Amino acid sequence: LLLLLLGAVLPSVVVAYNNGLGRLPPMGWNTWCTDDLCGLIDQCTEQELLSVADAIVSQGLDKLGYQYINMDDCWSATSRNSTGHLQPDAKNFPHGLRYVADYIHSKGLKFGLYTCVGTQTCRGGRPGSYGHYEQDAETFKEWGMDFIKADNCHRPSNITAREAYGNFSKALNATGHPMIFSLCEWGDENVQTWGADVGQMYRIQQDHLPFWHFPAKAAGQGLGQGTGDIIEYIAQLKPSTFVKPYGWMDPDFLETLFVPTMNFVDSRTEYTFWSLWSAPLLVATDVRNLDEMKRSIIANAEAIAIDQDPLGTAGDRIYNSTEGQQVWAKSLANGDKAVVLYNAHQLEHLDVHVTWDMLAWSPSDTVMVRDIWERKDLGNFTGGYTGKALPAHDVMFLRLKKL
Questions:
Q1: I need a labelling partner for 2 at 20 to 30 A (CA). Which of 136, 246, 344, 355 fits?
Q2: Overall pTM surpassing 0.90 (yes/no)
Q3: Measured distance CA(13)–CA(135) in Å, rounded
Q4: Options 36, 136, 207, 266, the catalytic residue
Q5: How many angstroms separate the CA atoms of 187 and 250, rounded?
């Protein structure tokens, strides 16, 4: 008994997290910016979740890989019940979370929720899981949860992030009910070197906000909270060094076409880089009643195939000019290369050129170039390829096949 009690209170580090889930990056949707303003309202409801589940199936997004219906910091009551268990907000979830889980599962989809490794969640004074890791893990099992995101707020100073996430990981695995474990750790304590040991995905920096540039105002690592800031930060990390099957670097939610701050070019560039990095594709904006513009981004099967490529590595920046031209490349399982020609300039149109020697190919090689966003072959080329007059923030997303 003493050993059991000590195991419950003393920090330990788990050195393997393999419950069979997460071989490829998770795909799905999150409540954060749908019937909410990216957490400013802190609200989600039973009806919202059911309607999104219906929409994902009716619009065929499930067939493309979108499987997870996830709640963020919005679902819980502000206190535990009389037995110390977490409980949903009774007004917003009148039938309880097991009811919601059963409905989502009946659609062939999976259900996820948010908690925190600290004493409270980040917003709204809701209870965190610190001191209750085992109890909460069993509750999540009883509710039929498939995905657990754990934030890093209000973590006591006597326990490191690695210890806290390791302990929670151990508790989740001990239930015998496989769940994706998502570490919302903000990139601290060099999480890229250990995150994959305790969960299938780990946040690599501060919260992503629906802007191209936004100052670094939140806790955690990074150069800023906008899409352009995240691209630059991850370039410095060289993500292929760390990304691997069952261990995905998470740049945070996709803010696709968030009105009015994420336009089409910025949203498509965002999706391009998340796919190149083999990042989880969790759309936080509304996926009900998709218009053609949004569908053209999040339902592009060729872009998704780059993200879900079974080799399970990430693309790195291989060229960076002082004027704003960048080239990124990712190796694919069949020997192809995914290449992004990116104009990082804030105003100017720029030509962006990739040469075959950047890819460790011979200049004399003949290479078939396919435009992923336009879904068309551009022809066969030797030496290299140039994207002409790319607008600011824009990309060409290419798949290259050496003939």
A1: 136
A2: yes
A3: 19
A4: 207
A5: 9
- Do 204 and 223 meet the contact criterion of CB atoms below 8 Å apart? no
Q: With 0-12 CB in 10 A as exposed, 13-18 as middle and 19+ as buried, what is 368? A: middle
Which neighbouring-strand residues pair with 385? 354
Query: What is the layout of strands, in order, in the sheet containing 337-343?
Result: 316-320, 325-331, 337-343, 395-402, 366-371, 376-382
Is 102 part of the annotated catalytic residue set? no
Assess whether pLDDT exceeds 70 at residue 13.
no
Whole-angstrom CA distances from 306 to 3, 159, 276 are 47, 38, 6
Question: Rounded to the nearest 10 degrees, how much is the dihedral formed by the CA atoms of 21, 27, 31, 34?
Answer: 180
Average per-residue pLDDT in the chain? 95
35 catalytic per annotation: no
Do the beta carbons of residue 401 and residue 357 sit within 8 Å?
A: no
pLDDT at 79 > cutoff 90: yes
* pLDDT given at position 17: 62
């053609």: which residue's tokens? Answer: 292
- Of 20 and 344, more confident: 344
Question: How far is 350 from 338, CA to CA, in rounded Å?
Answer: 20
Name residues whose C-beta falls within 8 Å of residue 161's C-beta, 6 or more positions apart in sequence.
117, 152, 155, 185, 188, 189, 191
The pLDDT value recorded for residue 19 is: 86
Catalytic residue, from 72, 151, 250, 307: name it: 151
